[in-house]
Amino acid sequence: MTKIRMTLNGAPVVREVEDRTSLADFLREECGLTATHLGCEHGACGACSVDVDGLLTRACLKFAVQCDGRTVTTLEGLNQDRVTEALRDAFHRAHALQCGFCTPGMLVTARDLLLRNPQPSEAEIRDALAGNICRCTGYAGIVHAIALAADELIRHPRSL
Amino acid sequence: MLEAGPELDAFRQSPYPALANGKVRYVGQAIAACVAPTRAQAEDLAEQVGVDCSELPAVVDAVQAMAPDSARLFDTWPDNAFIIRTIGAGDQEAMKQAPVRLRRQFRMNRQATVSLETRGCVAYWDQRLDELLVYLSTQGGHVMRLGLAQALGLPENQIRVIAPDVGGGFGGKNRLLPEEIAVCAIALKRNHPVRWIEDRREHLLASVHCRDHHYDLTISAERDGTIIGIEGDVHIDAGAYALWPTGSFMEASMAAGNLPGPYRVRGLNVNTWTVATNKAPMGPYRGVARPGACFAIERLVDELALHLGMEPYDLRKLNLVSRAEMPYTTVSGMKLDTGDYHDALDTAARMIDRPAIRKQQRERRPGELRIGVGFAIYTEQSGHGVVEWSKRKSRVVPGYEAANVRMLPDGSVNVHVGTQNHGQGHETSFAQIAAHELGIDPALVKIRYGDTATTPFGFGTFASRSIVFAGGAVATTSRKLAQKIKAIGAHLLQADPSSVEIRDGHVVAGSASVPFRDIARAANIRQELLPVGMEPTLEASGTYEPGDSAGVFSYGTHAVVVSVDEDSGVVKILDYAVAEDCGTMINPMIVDGQVQGGIAQGIGTGLFEEIPFNADGQPLATTFADYIMPCATEVPTVRIAHSVTPALVTEYGVKGVGEGGAIAPPAALANAVADAFRDCKASFNETPLTPRRVWEAAQRARREAGALT
Asked: Which of B23, B83, B277, B355 has its C-alpha lying 20 to 30 A from B248's C-alpha?
């Protein structure tokens, strides 16, 4: 077991973990943060996407011990985040989810895109989503929702 | 062990133990279960399990499996067929004498269903309630309880199945699988919860597999293109076991029965083999059998058109069942109820702008990508109940759904249903229906499902059935409740019950009105305000089945434009349009979502998804690195046009829409790729159309046409 310290969703966390525990399992099993979903556990589906030190990260491909001293933000930590708020609202309006299993990863990935590129084209949105699998929607609603959210954030930068 | 498959003597039994016993019949079959405090520790244990197995010859091809000298999966069977059936109907002589006879072979390869949330099960014995509590990712908890009770030898009222949120199913979570029985059986012996969550590798190896059809068909026609009939053989590779309850029996009968598609076909003579092989058992997957049947008939139509030098569009127009002929009973006995198939084809052709594509093709310069346009028409049976499922000898006959509608003292409403939402938006559609019948805001209605302890018995969500059956049950039951609300309202208003009406959450009599919350309060907690002799509470229960349980048919035309790179074989979708009709739409946004989502899966079948096996029966795609999923960069936003021809026998005229999107894309895509190579008459008759298959088919055709040496 190894003792790790991290800032998790804005609060300090100190835990003992097995070296082999993935960040995703640590979040879900040790911290009860179940928004981080596991769809493949080999880095292909994107459902476990989280933010580590400002970088979009697959929680299934990182060990918890690698996050010692880092700042980790899961979807639960983005409740007050204005970009995420706009995305949630747009996902609702554009029917961007059906079963909802991919949604947390989609939201975290879309937020990362909009922080880097506030006015993405459709091709840029699709490119940014290329590592996130949705089995239900056929992506149309998700792509539309991200464009709607971008538009909303540009038009009302302070209203959220 | 559970008996599975249809209740037919001719269907051979394939007892499927929860853990392999004596013989292991496919790679991925569970042999032992390891229990430990954490998954990692359980996997440590599993690593230490050694299995002493002697190798037997593998059976990996459904056609070769029927050869007399093939190895056998089950020693007691005379061959490898679960069942062999011939579907013959109509004018046999005309087919034999036909002036045009064209034979083609088609293959739709094996896939997994790939819900993004894999299967999973948590079970424990609740000491206080003296029952087994099972959290199960399933499409139908009530039916699964039935199977679990039989497998475990428990009375049904000692099992409670809860499926709170289900992360996709697509058919794959509509069968009881051995791991689920094993987890429950272990939970009976332990005094703590037992959990198993399938990982993706396990899903691709051993969860429900699907498709895997082989067709060898001859289409017969007049010289003008009028189709006469379809003859030939269909082999379904059903894997090693039949899954409870119905196995994969319907796959063959539906594949053969749907071969006439939307066309006037006079004769049908199809031999079907449902074959056991050393692969994971086959189960249902969105579209069940029809993607294969649609692929076969729609490719045959295009091949016939090419052979006769006709435009595929014209050949379709010549043979499509017309509106005036409805209801039209196909040669296989399906009653196409309502619709305008010609209009759907014309609309899709207009949307895709066929003349513009033809012009682009004529003007293509050497070195540019080839362009092709393809069409495919599908029909989608839904709302089929007792008549259809008893004809299929189904072990469980999903001929109805039930609803329970309750108005609480404050006027808010709970609706309990026996179907299982897993992405279809039942909370929205059913709330709309209840609100419509009760005359209230949908926000006041809460839809509840997914718990056998609280919901009425129901069969779950599959076969595009929920809007017809459960939507119908919510409608009729809410209507019943509305009558009682009106009676109480009339009493409170001192009005004649026949003179009152419901408007915006009030019972209204002329200028006087009383809000529902006063009525609900009287009914539930102030019975002295009720009419004399009236039963208290506001609660109605009921079941629903459509007026005709043979089913109603949604339909549509898919039109797709692709580019093909001759050098690499890579196919890209440039445009995708759909003209569809699913009867009355309760929620058009949800309908669009089902169409678009279904098409994404159909694109997966058509271009990407495949689990190949080597000669030893080793599956060669067990991660998303080998099993290619369609992503946002491959699936375009589909343009969708709706027509609304209401069904005659369902509430509001609704028809199901869940599966249709997934049926036509493989056929439309293959037709589009073939259209791009019309000059050298290349055939693209196997899915998925991987770059290698496309490149090889094009090379072969060009070599035969003398374009290559």
From this structure: B23
For B632, the closest of A39, A40, A126 (CB atoms) is A126
A30 interface with B at CB cutoff 8 Å: no
Please give the CATH architecture assigned to the domain spanning A80-155. Orthogonal Bundle (1.10)
The pLDDT of residue B706 is 80
Q: What is the ipTM of this complex?
A: 0.97
Secondary-structure class of domain A2-75 per CATH: alpha beta
CB-based contacts of B573, cutoff 8 Å, min separation 6 = B560, B561, B562, B603, B634, B635, B636, B669
Chain B partners within 8 Å of A103 (Cβ): none
Q: Across all residues in chain B, what is the average pLDDT?
A: 97
Residue B44 scores a pLDDT above 80:
yes
A80-155 matches A2-75 in CATH topology: no
Q: Does the N-terminal peptide bond of residue B630 adopt cis geometry, omega within 30 degrees of 0?
A: no
Encode pLDDT of B554-564 as tens digits.
Answer: 999 999 999 99
Contacts of B508 (CB under 8 A, 6+ apart): B500, B501, B502
CB contact B199 to A (< 8 Å): yes
Distances (CA, A) of B666 to B270, B374, B558: 22, 10, 10
Q: Where are the alpha helices (DSSP H) in B126-281?
A: 141-152, 178-189, 200-206, 249-257
State the virtual CA torsion across B529, B534, B539, B541 in degrees, nearest 10: -170
* Length of chain B counted residue by residue: 709
Q: What is the pLDDT of residues B419-446, one digit of tens each?
A: 999 999 999 999 999 999 999 999 999 9
Does residue A160 register a pLDDT over 50? no
The reply to whether residue A132 touches residue B170, judged by beta carbons under 8 angstroms, is no
pLDDT at position B1? 86
Decide: pTM greater than 0.90.
Answer: yes
Domain definitions of chain A by residue range: 2-75, 80-155
Residues of B in contact with A129 (CB under 8 A): 631-633
The burial of A61, by beta-carbon neighbours within 10 Å (0-12 exposed, 13-18 middle, 19 or more buried), is given as: middle
